[in-house]
Amino acid sequence: MPSKPPPSPAPARADQPLLHPRNRHQGRYDFAQLIAVCPQLADFMINNPHGKPSIDFANPGAVRVFNQALLKSLYGIAHWQIADGYLCPPIPGRADYLHGLADLLAGNNNGAIPKGQNVRVLDIGVGASCIYPLLGHGDYGWRFLGSDIDAAALSCAQANVHANQLDHAIELRLQAQRGQTFSGLLHADERFDLTLCNPPFHASAEEAASGSRRKWKNLGKLDPQRKLPELNFGGQNNELWCTGGEVSFIKRMIRESRGCADQVLWFSTLVSKAGNLPDIHKQLKKLAACEVRTVEMAQGNKQSRFVAWTFRDAAARQQWRTAHWSNCKQPAQQGQ
């Protein structure tokens, strides 16, 4: 079912953080349109403290149905489900990461974003939602390989891929070696233009739960009469925390990336905590990355960023462009 263009952006304050200009989630949502494509969303509608229509973002079920409506309305993704307990991603922020990566590739392609199936992207920790491959293929026509250590999450992701007839564009693969990212996963003849990752950012289950309680309090939702979910947006252990937390995970990934530098143009990862950047940059300098980019992102009051690095100098990146993007097609974007 063809979808309508994104809603017109509402006027923004000069100091208000903005989504990427190509992000489809600008401005206020047209809830009438969303309910039209996903009637179940009507069951979760509330008025926010300003009297405006919204949904209860403290309810994982509401967020899940809201995502279904967004994906169907704005991206033409007719079928999307995740099992209870898995991470339910905030879609606008996920889309911003992809648009930032598209700009990164454009910088190596005379300002034009390479689109179509010749561009291949590896999503490390694709999760049950499969959200990055679905959005990235919808916006740019890229092909994806999604990896995960959780076989059940991959099964859920595969159901989403198959239900939307995207098996030709999205492949899923189990990472059988826990604690590894690239090792044991990539085939020797595979090449990727990008890798992306949303790493677990807590060091323990207790830290993850504490972070959620702090978030509810900051949002003014800590109501003693109401039972709130322990973890905002849900999430399994391996999605939310790992030994050493975010910086440890990313430093291990950087070390592994050096070993497969000939197979990837740009590596990248989200970094939720700005305080982790010095350690990450130090690790990249130690391993002689040719270029490192840190791209800031914002969604409302939430600040985030991603770090991208490459082991190819400018000449080698141009050689990659000639070898891999010379036949890139520019497909019409899904849902537009």
From TrEMBL:
Assigned GO CC terms: cytoplasm
Family to which this protein belongs: Belongs to the methyltransferase superfamily. METTL16/RlmF family.
Keywords of the record: Cytoplasm, Methyltransferase, rRNA processing, S-adenosyl-L-methionine, Transferase
Organism domain of life: Bacteria
UniProt feature, compositional bias: Pro residues: 1-10
Pfam families: Methyltransf_10
Function: Specifically methylates the adenine in position 1618 of 23S rRNA.
Gene symbol of the encoding locus: rlmF
Protein name (database record): Ribosomal RNA large subunit methyltransferase F
Keyword Plastid included in the entry's annotation: no
Catalyzed reaction equations: adenosine(1618) in 23S rRNA + S-adenosyl-L-methionine = N(6)-methyladenosine(1618) in 23S rRNA + S-adenosyl-L-homocysteine + H(+)
Organism in which the protein naturally occurs: Pseudomonas pohangensis
GO molecular function terms attached to this record: 23S rRNA (adenine(1618)-N(6))-methyltransferase activity
An annotated GO BP: rRNA base methylation
